[in-house]
Amino acid sequence: MQTGQWLDPRDGTRWFFDSGSLALDFGWTGAFGGSQTTERMHGPADLHAWLDERFEQLEPVADPRNLQDALLLREAIVRIAAAVADGAAIAAEDIDAVNLYAATPDVPPSLDGGRRQAGRSVIRIGQALSTIARDAVALFAEHAGDGRIHRCSADDCALLFYDDSRSANRRWCSMQRCGNRAKVRAHRARARA
Ligand SMILES: [Zn+2]
Description:
single chain, Jann2411-like fold, two-stranded antiparallel sheet, 6 helices
């Protein structure tokens, strides 16, 4: 599954942010990133639309209970990611929340090209949330201690991401955004000197 999404920060300029993982992308649908991100999940329809872009044939439509579950899972993911990035202790309640959603049935894998849609007719919201929770389990289990989950190097940027680059040298949430701003600042500093 491709990761990344367009964000609508409070300053109004849309930009594409790839957090490097499905679980962190889901985390960044909330207003956790200072001015960098805004809340996108205002109602069940917003949740449905976000999941529908990533999982085919999502039925039935998301309801308020689904949204409540999604927000609980999302906040647990964000808090764990922040603790990992900042070297803080991870709260056991957050681990429990992620494990709870990961324990329910997820979206089963399937091969294309069969004659019927065996077992893959529709995907329920709960299955999609479980797939996100399992992605979080895999991400944190494998990378909590290796420094690949970290914050953008820009001083005024709170966004964190999973660096899946081979050389583990990703510094910016986005080159177009924080990377270029840092380059411009460095250039100006050199020009003044
Ligand atoms: Zn940044």
